[in-house]
Amino acid sequence: MRNRITYLLACLVVSSGSLAQSIYKDNSYSPAERAEDLVKQLTLEEKVALMMDNSKPVERLGIKPYNWWNEALHGVARSGWATVFPQPIGMAASFSPEALHTAFVAVSDEARAKNAAYSAEGSYKRYQGLTIWTPTVNIYRDPRWGRGIETYGEDPYLASVMGVSVVKGLQCLDENEKYDKVHACAKHFAVHSGPEWNRHSFNAENISPRDLYETYLPPFEALVKEGKVKEVMCAYNRFEGEPCCGSNRLLNHILRREWGYDGIVVADCSAISDFHNDKGHKTHADAASASSAAVLSGTDLECGSNYRSLTEGVKKGFIDEADIDRSVKRLLQARFELGEMDEPDQVRWAQIPYSVVCSDKHDSLSLDMARKSMTLLLNKNNALPLERGGTTIAVMGPNANDSVMQWGNYNGLPKRTITILDGIRSAMGKDDKLIYEQGCSWVERTLIRSVFNQCKSKEGAGFSARYWNNTEFKGAPAATSRLTTPFRLCTSGATVFAPDVNLTDFSATYQSVFTPQETGEVVFDFYCYGSVKLLVDGKEIGSFTNKHGSRPRAYGMHVDAGKSYDIEIKFQYFSSDAQLNFDLGFKEEADIQRSVAKVKDADVVIFAGGISPQLEGEEMGVKLPGFRGGDRTDIELPAVQREMIKALHDAGKKVIFVNCSGSPIAMEPETEYCQAILQAWYPGQSGGKAVAEVLFGDYNPAGRLPATFYRNLAQLPDFEDYNMAGHTYRFFNGEPLFPFGYGLSYTTFKYGKIQLKSSAQTDETVKITVPVTNTGSRNGEEVVQVYLKKQGETDGPVKTLRAFKRVYIPAGKTVKVELELTPKQLEWWDSATNTMRTMPNTFDVMVGGSSKDSDLQKKTLKLL
């Protein structure tokens, strides 16, 4: 009460200036009060400058620069060293919200520690702030969507539970804490799940109210109401004709009014440009009208620069300054809540030591999460676990020795990565023998054989390098060096490209003479974050700038044996961490029979295949069969891998297939050719160890599929059809290859009779008890799942998940597993009111170990 009275008195004497200013600087006032005071002292131009992700300082009022854009999809991303957890779709397979919460508490520890270190240096750049643009809780509607790898699967209840765990782990909100730890962001609101290639102009239309409220909105509602998420990011596409970031229905009616959300809405990067660009939605004439409409619809913050035109919007009458004030208050309040406006020594979270980053404790958490994500799909005749002692094991496949694949996308850089090959080598017995033969790539029928050793600079073997501590190659070089092996340069973890070179704002040239010993097509292979130009004999043959993290690029050129070629690579720092990986080599055709012959003595072949985040992801430029813009056009395992596996099978080999992917792969032939299939996802920095522990039986897998694995493309509806009919297990009437919720164990479980009363009131929480017995010889974990179906309904879900619990059960023991269905979990679609609500209904309650009918027991529950 004292603060409120003082605040009101201060407002009456605002003309005196000094007292008014003291309010926003005084942390005894609430963040809302401080924001209310500060916004009154800003000019229109200053307000607008605060509404963009790269917010400029207002030095006269002591407002520091702040960059709102940070990422931590599965570990702090794009900002140097960080613990890298499995990709979210893999963590969803754990069906363990508790483990997920623990992981993201660790992630927020690292985010705070890194922010404190950056701030102490006076650095306020992208990927250094406290506003974390994660989690992605869009429904994984179709396995072809490239960004499905960032989600928590195809089920709205699973996505809700896991998403809330992420938000609570990150934000660590506590009424006893003066400041928030970090702020999370629910994205991408709301009806958004591909395609990637046309997302800037795509219109998701003719979506029934039922599909909207029953499938697309629940995770966002859960994050807002239960998770208390501090930010929501609106999507690129249109919804029913309006850009999502300008959708009055989504942002004002549903988000703000129906759900009572009063936090920040941020536009996805360049989404406001799509309002008026020729290649976008073209719903608005220019940046001023587009920006004004977005703010009036409730979008407070832009990732981009269109909002500069808001001053013009005010002058032209498109928007009032009072509407801008509303958004600026939300932004300032968030900064006060985080303690970003106050001295670090006043903020407990700012005292987290940097030693937590990539700590042993966090590495063990990443390993634990990878273990929990491992999903065993096939195990013929108990082919797994493998026996140690006197066994010859061949390890093959494009993902066997690929650390970058394991990192997923939107990732940080771990201090070490245990590849699948590393993990298997370490797990083998002392009398076992290992053969490694990659055999093939992901998609192409070629492999690249390095000829880096055929390059020689004036100073000797390899490339000579010159560095400038500016981005324009100006002046005398700050340093010179020579690289005698393929480039592996990265500034992550404060590691400079060379001594005396800046971590940021630098440029470099690398020169050599390449004299090939053979004629053919040489490939210049890059994996970079920054701007690159490749020149051969002074002629530019390729250039690119990667703006959102490292990406692969490759250029081919015909060369003649014995002829010399002057090679020059120009590199310029762009932002965040710089990276330059480079090699050159000749493509060779994959020789399947030759590779099979190389492993002829193997007792078992572990083929680590699948795809890669270099192929699937956000709006990518991949041009390979089966992929388009980061999406997939085919869900089959790429043909070259399929042929390799079949050849191994035909040669009489026992094949264990470890599939690494962020999306469901159609593996119907592989179920014939392989003795076992382990879905390993993109398993993070310790993923290779987790894979090996499962293969050798040191860990009993209990992962479950968070998305349906279909048999083939023919089982899928049109990718651009957003109506749910035929999509996901909830509306699919066919027989999938592996169903949602499915996963095997090295032990067996038997369910006793469900204990569930036959009727309940609509405001009552319903208790379910089921005894589950571990009938095998190994300790293990079972994921008990509860599904609902409304009796007599023909247009609703065939079943839908409404409760689950991952339970440890020792061998031979029985555990009474208790679950509950709250009134919220018993909500169902009411066509009379077009709402989801709890009302009298009769349900089939199904309990078991997967969504497959034969795995479920059924009882009737009547709500009165």
From TrEMBL:
Signal peptide region: 1-20
UniProt keyword terms in alphabetical order: Hydrolase, Signal
Domain of life: Bacteria
GO MF assignments: hydrolase activity
Keyword Hydrolase among record annotations: yes
Residue ranges annotated for the PA14 domain, each copy included: 458-600
Pfam family, one: Fn3-like
Family the UniProt entry places it in: Belongs to the glycosyl hydrolase 3 family.
Protein name, UniProt field: Glycosyl hydrolase family 3 protein
